[in-house]
Amino acid sequence: MRWICRGVSRARDNRRVSDASLTTRHPHPPTGQDTVVRKSAIRARENVPIPCRLGRIKKNVDKEDWNCRYQGDDLLWTERPNRFLVTETEGLATGRALDLACGEGRNSVWLAEQGWQVTGVDFADVALEKARHLAEDRGVRVDWVGANLLEYAPPTEAFELVIAFYLQMPIKLLRPIFARAAGAVAPGGTFLIVAHDPSNLTHGYGGPRDPAVLYTTDDVLPALAGLEIERAEPVVRTVETAEGAREAVDALVRARRPRR
Ligand SMILES: C[S@@+](CC[C@H](N)C(=O)[O-])C[C@H]1O[C@@H](n2cnc3c(N)ncnc32)[C@H](O)[C@@H]1O
Questions:
Q1: pTM for this model (two decimals)
Q2: CA 161 to CA 185: how far, in whole Å?
Q3: Ligand 1 atom nearest to 177, measured from its CA
Q4: Cβ contact 30:91 at 8 Å
């Protein structure tokens, strides 16, 4: 069966998106960065339906499936930052921050508002377009990078904060991504990972139902060579739903590269 997603029609915002804004820039060009004008972004801009192959989602790893999920005026997630980002970064001196799988940019934008110099990376053009609008609306600057994290190589030891929130894919694919991300943490810097814990399947609300894309903190730790683990544990997040408050279980890892 095929689903058809309607393209984005930004009723609240009649600004036309220039071709230039569809092309990503990065101070340190990563490998795997999209270098061609992306068809999905053009389809979204011109309100052309994107064929949605939801029946063929490949363990959360397909870019066009994600683009399809992000279609529509509403945010797929929220514009509020994740609560663990707020609590776990409290007291950190601001600097350069890298938000991997930034989606619609809620965490990147919040970090920029706190004074961080932020780079947000995601492969979903439709999400990045929404992220650009969110940053514009909130009056902050973020460098948005369209890239596939399976290939993206951030610069070494270049960020005082690296975050990866709810990047759900098989751990075999994730470990190299997290290893490169760990390598991007500057001396004294922090790496923060938050994901849906496997126990959320039985004890929590929402999140992916496919166990193959869920991972524990223990699954992640082998990828974090050179970092000191400050915190690694399941954490509970209260979610307000139409049926009342529910609890979701996340896996949280906070690690730091020692100063030399
Ligand atoms: C559940 S969303 C989380 C978005 C954001 N971190 C947040 O918390 O709001 C997961 C994001 O991962 C992105 N993603 C999944 N696989 C990816 C890949 N291989 N390369 C880049 N982005 C990817 C998706 O496009 C999606 O935006």
A1: 0.82
A2: 7
A3: 19
A4: no
**Which residues make Cβ contacts (< 8 Å) with residue 108, sequence separation at least 6?**
97, 99, 102, 118, 119, 120, 131, 135, 142, 144
Query: Looking at residue 73, what is its pLDDT?
Result: 82
For CA atoms 77, 81, 85, 86, the dihedral sign is: negative
Least confident of 50-54, 61-65, 69-73, 86-90: 50-54
Domain range 83-256, CATH architecture = 3-Layer(aba) Sandwich (3.40)
Ligand 1 midpoint to CA 199 (Å): 21
- Asked if 44 and 67 touch (Cβ cutoff 8 Å), the reply is yes
Ligand 1 close to Cβ of residue 68 (< 6 A): no
Give the residue extent of every domain in the chain.
3-70, 83-256
Q: What is the pLDDT of residues 130-180, one digit of tens each?
A: 999 999 999 999 999 999 999 999 999 999 999 999 999 999 999 999 999
